[in-house]
Amino acid sequence: MNSTFRSLTSTASSLFSRYSPPAFKPVTLYTTTRRGTSRRARRKKMGLPEPEQTPDYTNWSASQLLKRITDLETQLRNNRIVPVTDPSVTAALPPKKKQKKDRPFDASRYNTRHIALKFAYLGQRYNGFEHHTGNKTPLPTIEEELWKAFMKTRLIFPTRGAELKEGEIDWEGTDYSKCGRTDRGVSAFGQVIGIRVRSLQPMPKEQPVQEEEQGDKMQGIEGNAKEQGSKEDKKPESKPWDHIRDELPYIQLLNRVLPEDIRMLAWCPTPPTDFNARFNCRERRYRYFFTSPAFAPVPGDAGLLTTATGKTLREGYLDIEAMRDAAKRYEGLHDFRNFCKVDPAKQITNFERRIFKASIEEVDVSQAPAGFISHPAFAQSVGAKNQMGGQGDMSIPKIYTFDVNGSAFLWHQVRHLVAVLFLVGQGFEPPSIISDLLDMEKYPTRPKYEMATDAPLVLWDCIFPDHEDIDQSREDAMEWVYVGETGGRETNKRPEMDGGDSKFGKGGIMDSIWEVWHKRKIDEILAGSLMDIVAAQGKRSPADVKLAPVAERSPRLFDGGDWPRPVGTYVPIARKQRMEPVEVVNARHLERKGPYKPKFMRKEDGDE
């Protein structure tokens, strides 16, 4: 009997310890213990019930213990199944934090300033530079990405900013201007825009307004205040604000939110008065990259052809000397209507443009691309010679550029210029064809020839000489602050501590550009290695390949793209069909659409 009683007592105590009234258990999780205050007093003050005390089971009978066990098991089962909500427990829970509402950005609290920005982009993923409202394009434009970056960083305050819907762009109120308008697929390494942005320059302090009604009384008070002010210690003058050093890090702010293939390079804190990036630009410099051979040549005698100048040349290779002769003929002031695409909407009648320089240059591997590694500062170790070779070590195929500098360019002009040069380089046309096409008496209208492809073309730089001295040498006179220089890096970062100066090192722009380059370089290496492997496979030597001579095969025409186009029988430019005269094209458009005068239009303005 005693053993049974002890067993029942133990079971009842165990069940009671497992059961805790819901009104009491959660409270202990959210109450704090204060020194010097009893738990019972605190519970009484909070209006909470007293916890149930464990009964003394030593004097209970067996029947009482069995009933107690049954009751506790029932309560424990109900406590697990049915949640109980007690107002006293809810009151003891900690209050939820209120979510802060985003306050609207108050543009009136900030100064603004007009600056110029120089930036670069790779154009293959974009539908050109310019955005046209209501014109949906298969790819985004550079202007769309710029707009999103400026708005996300809250650097601009457009007039209709709050009214614009998603996807809409309206630069009104930002003094926005652009230098060049590159086409789809075309890149730029020196594009320039002008824009009014938010500034850290302190706002002028408001001066108290003196009311005229107070008259002499206010004058007396003002006199007493001056006397008291002379006796008091003067407050130390604040440090003058530096318009470059103390300004926002515009380059870094924008690069953080722009795509990896669009990078801000520099900013100009003091552009000329009424600066317009398009009309203040005195010179635009373009480069068109190509290789020689331009496509995979055919080995042996079957790959040889005779050019228009009587030279023997292997198909795929370009006659660089003939191209240089032809390019020189572009220099000077000429009518380039036969080297552009006519846009009748602009009603252009003046096609004269001045070319300062036109040449074919071989790219030195020690200078570009990625030639900065050849500098001694980037040597593998102290005293080690640089791994990059000189001009003689350049691998085949060689890389060339067509460099052309001019004051302004017509629509697709550069791609037409280089297209004719490729015809000369492949031996289809003599260099004299350039002079003939520039002669309006010989060619009053443009022959129908295809322009070169877009990908290798780069707007290399935009030059802005002193606007007050038009006759000066064509040098960039604007004060550019480049990334990494004072005013071109974040002032809250120290290179010696953070490991970067915004240009080189951790978080620098060179790291992000290297990443973009490295992806494409590996693709180049893999594709080149694959060509070498395939060319070496098999038992036959390239010298043993027997093909029909070039004269008996369909010629292939190189237009700057990745592969040549078969053209059947080549028709010389002199015998090609001609376009309609410009006057006829303009008149027909005017009759159908009516006159159109875009903003900032001027007589000699074209579309680059």
From TrEMBL:
InterPro entries assigned: PsdUridine_synth_cat_dom_sf, PsdUridine_synth_TruA, PsdUridine_synth_TruA_a/b_dom, PsdUridine_synth_TruA_C, Pus3-like, TruA/RsuA/RluB/E/F_N
UniProt region (Disordered), positions on chain: 27-59, 200-241
Feature: compositional bias, Basic and acidic residues: 224-241
One family name in Pfam for this protein: PseudoU_synth_1
Residue ranges of domain Pseudouridine synthase I TruA alpha/beta in the record: 326-465
Gene Ontology MF terms: pseudouridine synthase activity; RNA binding
Record GO biological process: mRNA pseudouridine synthesis; tRNA pseudouridine synthesis
Keyword line: Isomerase, tRNA processing
GO cellular component labels: cytoplasm; nucleus
Residue ranges with Basic residues bias: 36-46
PANTHER family, per database record: PSEUDOURIDYLATE SYNTHASE, TRNA PSEUDOURIDINE(38_39) SYNTHASE
Family: Belongs to the tRNA pseudouridine synthase TruA family.
Name this polypeptide is given: Pseudouridine synthase
Native organism taxonomy: Eukaryota, Fungi, Dikarya, Ascomycota, Pezizomycotina
